[in-house]
Amino acid sequence: MPHFFADHSAPSIPLHLLMQGELDAFLKTQDTKTVEWIAAQGFTGGAGQICTVPLAGGGFFVIAGLGGEVDLKRTRFGLAQIRSKLPEAIFHLETSLIGAALEQQVLGWLFAGYAFDRYADQPTAKAQLIAPEGIDQARLEVLAVGEFLTRDLINTPASDMGPDELAQAAQELASKHGASCDIILDQDLLDQNFPMIHTVGRASIHAPRLIDMRWGASGPKLTLVGKGVCFDTGGLNLKPGASMGLMKKDMGGAATVLGLAHMIMALGLNVQLRVLIPAVENSVSANAFRPQDILTSRKGLTVEINNTDAEGRLVLADALALADEEKPDLIISMATLTGAARVALGPDLSPFYATDQCDALALNGVAQDASDPVWQMPFWDPYEKMIEPGIAHLDNAPSGGMAGSITAALFLRRFVTNTPRYMHFDIYGWCPSALPGRTKGGVGMGARAVLAALPELLKND
């Protein structure tokens, strides 16, 4: 595990973290020269402001602003934007923040240390922090490692993150935590009845596969299913170049469930965890599947293909059918599935669906404190007829362009019939521009909220 915090015994510089309304009280504790210095620097406690204050006997301390309540609502990780402005030194926090609010800011500090430097050196924050009292240091470090794993996987281009490399990443994670990891590859997919995973991936030179990881021998059964489309050309319904540009992130669901799996295993939660990832590349070749083809799924449901660019739900369907056969306590799928979800909620919010409203309430109840916002979408039964083409049981891409995220979620729900509790996340997995604690590029969505909700989601009735 990376070393995220400075040693507690190291000499450190005070970093006073102030809300905008706390400045006056702070100034009353300082001498006249210090007050005059702070005023001369124009420091007001605004979000992201810092002021270095020299001490009479040498040295300095720093005050930094989080802004007001509005700023906290608009910027999840105020301390993250402060870290990049600090000099290379070791700091300790002086703040009135406690509990979840403090942990949220410290987690942002850790996230601000991320850099994707596989292909070129990247600037990194130099300031270090001593872990403040009152936080769960070990847990925050686990969250950071899981998030960085997700980001690294998404950021790696398909030239180095195809189905084989994604499987290797899963196997490395399994080995790290003493989990098992089986890979069902290529022709074996057909022999073991995963026809839609095979069909979507067969046109690529990189063979399709299903990754099946297991960990834990006791506790409730939780199965995570992640979409692992390592690159999506759109197939014969070829995407235009502009739409293909970010398709290295189409395995963002797989990257997110692997990051979440790391968190669960590293924290030693009492759960029987299974992770299923259909890993494919949706390519164009003589044996690519075609519009108007009808596929038979693992569950026996037939699917009419009305758009080969709606392939993610096909590979997820076979994996969900396998997950459902075991009847776990809860199945959660995560996928960069539809542009409709991105249009509806943008890149910050994780849209999710839940068959059990108690699960939805549990997730909503912890997401804010986890600094991982979510938004519930409906499994709207009246739209079921939109995914029924008549010639087959299901339509993979209903015409009309209406309710695209909902109809995709309804499609997936058809493959979970033995497990009453199912949740689906239609995430974006990408930060379009750099934000505090989130560099431009791949980003985890929903994982920390799920982790925080697991005690409630998996408690014994």
UniProtKB/TrEMBL annotation:
User: Molecular function (GO) terms listed?
Assistant: manganese ion binding; metalloaminopeptidase activity
Question: Tell me, which GO biological process terms does this entry list?
Answer: proteolysis
Q: Which GO terms describe its cellular component?
A: cytoplasm
Q: Which CDD domains match?
A: Peptidase_M17 (cd00433)
Kindly give the InterPro entries that the UniProt entry links to this protein: Leucine_aapep/pepB (IPR011356), Macro_dom-like (IPR043472), Peptidase_M17_C (IPR000819), Peptidase_M17_N_1 (IPR048816)
The cross-references to Pfam families, in alphabetical order and at most eight, read: Peptidase_M17, Peptidase_M17_N_1
- Protein keywords: Aminopeptidase, Hydrolase, Manganese, Protease
Sorted alphabetically, which Gene3D superfamilies does this protein's record hold? Leucine Aminopeptidase, subunit E, domain 1, Zn peptidases
Q: Which PROSITE patterns match?
A: CYTOSOL_AP
Q: Where is the Cytosol aminopeptidase domain?
A: 307-314
The question of whether Transferase is a record keyword is answered with no
Q: What family, per the record?
A: Belongs to the peptidase M17 family.
Designated name of the protein = Leucyl aminopeptidase
